[in-house]
Amino acid sequence: MSDTVKDKRPLCLSGKGVTKVFGFGEKKTVAVDHVDFEFHEGELISIVGESGSGKTTLSKMLLGLSSTTEGEIFFQGKPRDIKTRKKKKEYWKDIQAIFQDPFSSYNIFSKIDTVLLDCINMRGGRSLPMEKKVEMITEACSFVNLKFAELTNKYPFELSGGQMQRLMIARIFLLKPKILLADEPTSMIDACSRATILDMLLHLRDETGMTIIFITHDIGLAYYISDSVYIMEHGKFVERGTADEVILHSKAAYTKRLISDVPKIYEEWDLSTV
Amino acid sequence: MKNTIRQVFHSPKFVVGFVIFALMLLMVIIYPIISPGDPLQMISKGSFLKPGVYFSVYDSINTNSKTIDLPEANQKRLANKLSDTDKVSMVQWLTAAGVPAEDIDMEDTTSLIKLWNEKYDPTVKPEGMTMAQRNFYKRLDKSLDNILNEQPLVVSAQNQETQTLDEIKRISDTDYVNLKDVPNVKVLPLGTDNFGDDVLKKLVSATKTSLLIGLIAGSIATLIGLTLGLLAGYLGGFIDDFIMFITNLFTVIPSFVLLILISYSIGQDKRGASTVAIVIGITSWVWTTRSVRSQVISLRNRDHVNLSKLSGHSLTSIIIKDILPYIASYVVMAFILQISTAILAEASLSMIGLGPKTADVSTLGLMMDWAMSYSAHLNGAWWAYFPVILVIALISFSLNLMNTGLDQVFNPTLRD
């Protein structure tokens, strides 16, 4: 997708000088350092960086789970207002997330049904009859190749990691948010399930036209799926642009290093750059 | 849930602790049913009656007696009246008075007493014998009067009209009554204490009161600690700082000193068992708060909590459904420990005289306090304090054992 096409799309989520500082004095850590970004509707954006580069902190701020120390985040062009719980709840109807570790994403004390029913309730379907709710849940489950009849009344720990993560996508399918923030959703999952899950995410994007912010450390994966790529190093964006620009014609040294660190099956892995 | 309970009951430590604790509870529930009555009723005049079976002498005289002739009856009677040390003393006097050693037979008590009655003369002053020793022998001689008398005893009653003593019964040394025929028999398995109260009955009621104090104080402490810990840990920020400031304040003041001060200022008259329990409860929540807070802090940034937030759940719903179940096992353990510490705190408070008012209830601590005030340990009245110590130790032991058992189930790394 070229810049010209992208620019025609309306802004979905953007930020100016977004900063997050933990601690103070000598122990001060700047996790995210004055970053600017513009995410457009329907785009698939990858934020790539190594561990500790501030990706997850940025995603928490985007989700409104943690506050920004400085700077402002704009939602659909207007400054985001999530000061009250009610407004936060409204905001979370538009932005949802899939987390890295499916095993810790679920409350192990509540059944799977609860998680999915919560989504329907959140979309205002609280008063729907139970049969209708079950029908919706079954549809969502079949979208991710799961059978609800086999899952009902089960606890999350009775499922495999791949099943749990697919159920997370089913949750997104029910919620239909405008933005999906996927924080390394495939890093804890084996290669086969990974392809399936990525495929489902892309399929979901095509169906609903949602914006997906994909956070990953895998630059190869980012190139494979994304429209635009942001490279993050020590809390700053060192490079940004379309996937082709950033990866095939990278300028920043850090990006080059990330690319060279991707292991290739038929080549010897050059460890000297690591 | 079912699995966890099954796992808990497979832990040998927990099961042993649970069985001991359940037996205590059963004793507290069943004993008052089989032996009803006010535990604080003074049944004996004079303190520290030895444990044993007491039956009415009055009743046994009035009971039909049967004749049983036992050959060693007199021997036993003598042995009961004349101890071995007395016999040695008698031999010493006789030797000093110049009786040849071959005439004295210590084994045959009857002949020894006969010899004594024959030879003893209070006016004789054997050489090297002090006045005090001579007085001792005079007393000993007096106690031996009639010891060999096998004449029947005469029981008489005063005639109301003539004011003379009328013989109503003669009791010979071969008269026996069946204990079952005596209407008034009192079994005191643990004797009586300084007030003359039945120690066993009092102990059971004291165990009940102490367990209740432990339960009330433990619940209050756990509730306060849990609420403050959850709020401080989950909300963070200013509320966390404020709660932790108060908690730290309470941490540096030794809670026992605080307990003494509050108990003292309440005053003796207003201090009932429940007041003491509440005072103990509101001084011992500190460590629960600290540990719950640290657990909650590690939980609040977990993905499942974030997901719950994103699903639009309210604060209370997140705390109750997403945080509390994860720390529930820990809270149960803290609660069990709080009960045990509260029981010990009550005992310590009562030992220094700041326990509940004695007239109303008995607690384990109060029993210890009174036993100590009346020097039961110096009088050899072990039954007044040893069973109490045993019960305190058993309660504390069983609760701690249950706690360790639970700890091993919930923290798999501790399993051995």
UniProtKB/TrEMBL annotation, chain A:
<dbReference type="InterPro" id="IPR003593">
    <property type="entry name" value="AAA+_ATPase"/>
</dbReference>
<dbReference type="InterPro" id="IPR003439">
    <property type="entry name" value="ABC_transporter-like_ATP-bd"/>
</dbReference>
<dbReference type="Pfam" id="PF00005">
    <property type="entry name" value="ABC_tran"/>
</dbReference>
<keyword id="KW-0067">ATP-binding</keyword>
<dbReference type="InterPro" id="IPR027417">
    <property type="entry name" value="P-loop_NTPase"/>
</dbReference>
<dbReference type="InterPro" id="IPR017871">
    <property type="entry name" value="ABC_transporter-like_CS"/>
</dbReference>
<keyword id="KW-0547">Nucleotide-binding</keyword>
<dbReference type="GO" id="GO:0016887">
    <property type="term" value="F:ATP hydrolysis activity"/>
</dbReference>
<dbReference type="GO" id="GO:0005524">
    <property type="term" value="F:ATP binding"/>
</dbReference>
<protein>
    <submittedName>
        <fullName>Peptide/nickel transport system ATP-binding protein</fullName>
    </submittedName>
</protein>
<feature type="domain" description="ABC transporter">
    <location>
        <begin position="13"/>
        <end position="259"/>
    </location>
</feature>
UniProtKB/TrEMBL annotation, chain B:
<keyword id="KW-0812">Transmembrane</keyword>
<feature type="transmembrane region" description="Helical">
    <location>
        <begin position="242"/>
        <end position="262"/>
    </location>
</feature>
<feature type="transmembrane region" description="Helical">
    <location>
        <begin position="211"/>
        <end position="236"/>
    </location>
</feature>
<keyword id="KW-0472">Membrane</keyword>
<dbReference type="Pfam" id="PF12911">
    <property type="entry name" value="OppC_N"/>
</dbReference>
<feature type="transmembrane region" description="Helical">
    <location>
        <begin position="14"/>
        <end position="34"/>
    </location>
</feature>
<dbReference type="InterPro" id="IPR035906">
    <property type="entry name" value="MetI-like_sf"/>
</dbReference>
<feature type="domain" description="ABC transmembrane type-1">
    <location>
        <begin position="207"/>
        <end position="403"/>
    </location>
</feature>
<keyword id="KW-1133">Transmembrane helix</keyword>
<dbReference type="Pfam" id="PF00528">
    <property type="entry name" value="BPD_transp_1"/>
</dbReference>
<dbReference type="GO" id="GO:0071916">
    <property type="term" value="F:dipeptide transmembrane transporter activity"/>
</dbReference>
<keyword id="KW-0813">Transport</keyword>
<feature type="transmembrane region" description="Helical">
    <location>
        <begin position="382"/>
        <end position="402"/>
    </location>
</feature>
<protein>
    <submittedName>
        <fullName>ABC-type dipeptide/oligopeptide/nickel transport system, permease component</fullName>
    </submittedName>
</protein>
<dbReference type="InterPro" id="IPR025966">
    <property type="entry name" value="OppC_N"/>
</dbReference>
<dbReference type="InterPro" id="IPR000515">
    <property type="entry name" value="MetI-like"/>
</dbReference>
<comment type="similarity">
    <text>Belongs to the binding-protein-dependent transport system permease family.</text>
</comment>
<dbReference type="InterPro" id="IPR050366">
    <property type="entry name" value="BP-dependent_transpt_permease"/>
</dbReference>
<keyword id="KW-1003">Cell membrane</keyword>
<feature type="transmembrane region" description="Helical">
    <location>
        <begin position="323"/>
        <end position="345"/>
    </location>
</feature>
<dbReference type="GO" id="GO:0005886">
    <property type="term" value="C:plasma membrane"/>
</dbReference>
